[in-house]
Amino acid sequence: MNHNQKVAIITGASSGMGAATAKLLAQNGIKVMMAARREDRLQQLQDEIRAAGGEASYKVTDVTSRTDMEALASETIKTYGQIDIMINNAGIMPLSFFSKLKVDEWDRMIDVNIKGVLYGVAAVYKHMVERNEGHIINFSSIAGHIIFPSSSIYSATKHAVRILTEGMRTELGADQNIRTTLISPGAVETELYGTITDDTIFPALEKLGSAGWKQLDPSDIANTILFAIQQPAHVTINEMIVRPTSQSL
Asked: Which terminal CB of the chain, N or C, has fewer other CB atoms within 10 Å?
């Protein structure tokens, strides 16, 4: 499909699923505005995409700042004239057992995983309503569907994203050409594991799959996003769970 007129914002774009998605969408003719905190990574990714013939820009953004997110939307409209797709990908996963009482990490997860998504939606919602066109893609997780030891707070934040996304879908009118998609990945080879400070949980994580099991690659999730975007306007992929074949939970 020809998406040369489409513009997408991607948060958490400096690595992992966000970076893979930015590359794939740009390869398919979508203009991408990349947002994250690490400017060096964003600059490198922008250069790679442009060298490959794609259109990409970036803005250093903290998703926990409503001001930053509003500025991101404004910069996107200034640069490309519109926002067609909002991909709220940024998230953190500092899993820990309740007994560790890592309250600061709980707060941070709530700020990034819930407020970051809400600020992203708020930043683009009016623009999409005025144009009567748009696609909001939010990320939950398999942890938003199941709970395992050490995942309680993370699971709570990801379940919240499920509720928020479905709630928004029910409020959109039948005459509004605005789609919502929720993607819940299973285990993916990303930097999320680097946010874990409670080393005692890793034995529990090993039980997620069988011996020698293969996790998803970020490109697998990027392909999932592109699939949802490429559906004709009258079709909405509302929710997808994407697990590694060998993941047991």
From this structure: N
